[in-house]
Amino acid sequence: MWIYTQCSQPAGTITPFRELPNRVPITFRHSDIMANGIACPFNFPLYSFTGLEASGRPGKDQVVLLQVQSLRSGVRSLRYLPVIVLLTGALLACNGESPDGDFSIVLRLSHVFSPKEELAIALETVAENIFANTNGAVKILTYPQGQIAAYKDGVEMVVRGAYFISVEDPSYIGDYVPEFTALVGPMLYRNFEEYISLVNTPLVLGWVEKLEAKGIKVLSLQYIFGFRNIITDKVIRTPEDLSGIKLRTPGSKLFIETINAMGATATPLPWGETFSAIQQGVVDGLEGSDFTNADTKVYETGKIRVALTNHFLGTAGVYISTQVWAKIPAKYQTIIEQEFTEEADRMVERLNANHAEVVRELEENGVQFNEIDRPAFEKRTVKLFETLPGVNMDMYEQIQTELGRIRRESQAGQPQDGLPQDGLPHE
Questions:
Q1: How far apart are CA 295 and CA 301, in angstroms?
Q2: I need a labelling partner for 402 at 20 to 30 A (CA). Which of 30, 146, 206, 354 fits?
Q3: What is the distance between the terminal CA atoms of the chain, rounded to a whole angstrom?
Q4: What are the chain's domains?
């Protein structure tokens, strides 16, 4: 098997594998491989790697030839696998300063959104702007639709120090600081601006500091893609209407427990399997935003009834390893943070401006919306703040206290935490 990665190895040199920096440990389980930065397109549960040699190639490329020993089912046969494995800098120290002092780094950004969705387009824009504004020193390669490690696996790669950017719902970093699970808990927000104001309060900024102590640097928490609703082929108004209905959810425990509490049966599936699961009757519907409904044409599956539960504010955070972040010069850190922040702001502005048009598009394609008995759903879901791992009612009360203040200031026409009265941050 060949492993390919960018390195500062002089062209034409041959280096014994044992002399390479940070060489691959001898034995990995599949979960360790994912966490350490390799996206494997095969599913053997255990590998044994023996390095043979590494050869430099022009353009700061290095190829490492590895011998792969499959230990599946106790069979210890040696063979070479004709695959290319994506290797991040957690395994080989290949990013950093070259001998002439020029800094360069390649980061791989993973998310689960379709390339046509607004969030995916926004992240492509960020990557392009960062590359241009750093004169090519910081290159971000984007991988949509869960092509490489995503969800919990993606966050684990960040924690392990991979040259990797994870874009996920904040509930996934709630595994490390539970307050972030509470932050995106069910039935909390009435509009985008309430959430934006909240994440800029000292309360949430304090949680961000706690997260950095766990090895996760937050580049943004504000990649909002709309409120999530229930999408089926039935009219859903009360929790009782969801009885016996199986809904596709992400694998987050927060999502699973919330959908179950609302009265349905949560069925966690990767997004890429959702449409086939609907067609085969594995699930009866899903939950998602109007923007996702329109961009991916969910309505073409026949699921044209949307119950306006607004049970979650759909938002994604952007996370990078604190170890990797510390290796990036301050001038490039500033550019990276600025680009992620400004594009998140522009994305919210576009969502606010375009939502009415998206709803009109959905209605033209046969989608029908209905209101719900919100207090009945709230009564069921508030209990989750007592039962979700690490979450408690104190966190819920802290959030509600801040939201109460934000709402009072908004009603009084006062800026929220230094934000303009439209609730959106501007330069």
A1: 13
A2: 354
A3: 50
A4: 1-94 (no CATH), 227-313+354-391 (3.40.190.170)
